[in-house]
């Protein structure tokens, strides 16, 4: 997602209680509008606890602000709805893989997609029995996503990357192919982008969305992803 520098420290901030005329559950929290003189074209929004923060250019009129706040609240709500459905499907797939390749012994408490893992494909916290997969895997071949998910499931049984861990993955027939695919993605990310082509890598952090207010203004950034991080 395109991103511009955060609001200037002295930028005006205004709290808007709720969002009149927009009654979805995701839009009933307070909204804080932050204007920035350095923000020229894009409007961004993200959740901060029970509050929604909307970042807009300082030059916007009150009418434009109202329209863009409503639009960004709708975008966030739709994004969160898609993410919830995706998490359910991911959890179901994790259960299938555990039963098929790990004898059903790896039972996570939570499996979800996240948008703040731009330098890793997946991560696992055994103490919480939670697994997170990077949204950058979405759209990749199913066997690749399955490998990363199975990799993290195996960490619930073997936290490190020792012999026992790799023995758990021996039953998955496409391990080497999936690893090769991911290595190719990483190698391609290191190549220079063609003139005028920006890499829209997004921001580390919680659920967020952004849109150009009167034209694109992307920042190009690429990260080298990893997978199998466990803590």
Structure explained in plain terms:
The protein has 231 residues and is an alpha/beta fold. The chain has 2 domains: 13-79 and 203-212, no CATH class; 81-192, 2-Layer Sandwich (Zincin-like), CATH 3.30.2010. The protein has 4 helices and 9 strands, in the order ββββαβββαααββ. The chain has helices at 62-101, 142-155, 163-168, 175-189, and strands at 13-16, 30-36, 42-48, 51-57, 110-114, 122-125, 130-134, 208-212, 229-230. A 5-stranded mixed beta sheet has the order 1-2-4-3-8, with helices on one face. Strands 5-7-6-9 form a 4-stranded mixed beta sheet. A hairpin with a 4-residue loop joins β6 (122-125) and β7 (130-134). α1 packs across α2 (142-155) and α2 (142-155) packs across α4.
For the structure shown, list the relevant keywords.
about 230 residues, alpha/beta, Zincin-like, 2 domains, five-stranded mixed β-sheet, four-stranded mixed β-sheet, 4 helices, about 20% strand
In short:
With 231 residues, the protein is an alpha/beta fold. The protein has helices spanning 62-101, 142-155, 163-168, 175-189, and strands at residues 13-16, 30-36, 42-48, 51-57, 110-114, 122-125, 130-134, 208-212, 229-230.
Helix-strand pattern: EEEEHEEEHHHEE
Shape: elongated
Protein structure class = alpha/beta
Strand order of the largest sheet: 1-2-4-3-8
CATH architecture of the largest domain: 2-Layer Sandwich
CATH superfamily of the largest domain: Metalloproteases ("zincins"), catalytic domain
Number of helices: 4
The termini sit apart by 28 Å
Which range does the strand content fall in?
15-25%
Overall pLDDT score: 75
Main beta sheet: 5 strands, mixed
CATH top level class name of the largest domain: Alpha Beta
Q: Give the total of domains.
A: 2
Q: Whole-number radius of gyration?
A: 20 Å
CATH topology of the largest domain: Zincin-like
